[in-house]
Amino acid sequence: MTYTFSLSQADYLNFQLFFASTVQNARTQRKNSQIMWTVFFLLMAFNFYAEKIFFPAVVFLVFGVSWAIFYPMYAKNRQQKHFEKYINTFLSEKFDKVCTITIDDQIIHTVEENYESKIALSEVKQVYETGDYFYAHLKSGQTFIFPRHRIENINALEDQLRDIAAKNQVNFTEMTDWKW
Do 88 and 101 share a domain, yes or no? Predict the structure, then answer.
């Protein structure tokens, strides 16, 4: 089956955000940063309180509680801006270029403006389904991004991706309620 579509800056950004949210190392790093700074602020507040210096104790206490509450939103916003800058710097030439992908029994054949490739289906490592996209992650680290809203026969694509996952004995992970 052949699929023709193009990817926008938003498609690349959603992929980067999705992948960052699923990688355990990135989630652990964000959580550790939140905990480390919260503990630091609270220890400083306790230290000043123990010394009976109340104004800095209250300030550090407010910083500590505020950091614990607002850091997740700050980190997400900062990471999104980082990915936007990265995508605009390194992937802008790929925006809105027509891509034709043909999936048959053995290969995924991709044709873009100045690029053509054939990849064996056995190279598929993981398939993800979100509310707006399908991602076929390869062993080489590359990922095919299939935007649901730009592919006409999305049900046929879903069936093919499920078949690929079953044949290669890899996970087809449904995360249809995923949000950044």
Answer: no
Residue 180 domain flag: no
pLDDT by residue (tens digit) across 143-152? 999 999 999 9
SS3 assignment, position 144: strand
Q: Is residue 48 part of a domain?
A: yes
- Strand-pairing partners, residue 119, are 108
Q: Which residues contact 15 (CB under 8 A, 6 or more apart)?
A: 133, 135, 143, 145
The phi, psi pair for 166, rounded to 5°, reads -65, -45
Do residues 5 and 28 lie in contact, with contact meaning Cβ atoms separated by under 8 Å?
no
Q: Do 85 and 16 reside in the same domain of the chain? A: yes
Q: What whole-number percentage of the chain has pLDDT above 70?
A: 100
Residue 137 has phi, psi (to 5 degrees) of -90, 130
Handedness of CA 19, 21, 22, 23 (dihedral sign): positive
Angle between helices 54-90 and 9-22 (to 10 degrees): 130
Q: Would you place residue 131 in the very low, low, confident or very high pLDDT band (cuts 50, 70, 90)?
A: very high
- Domain of residue 87 covers 11-92
Tokens 């710097």 label which residue? Answer: 89
60 falls within a domain: yes
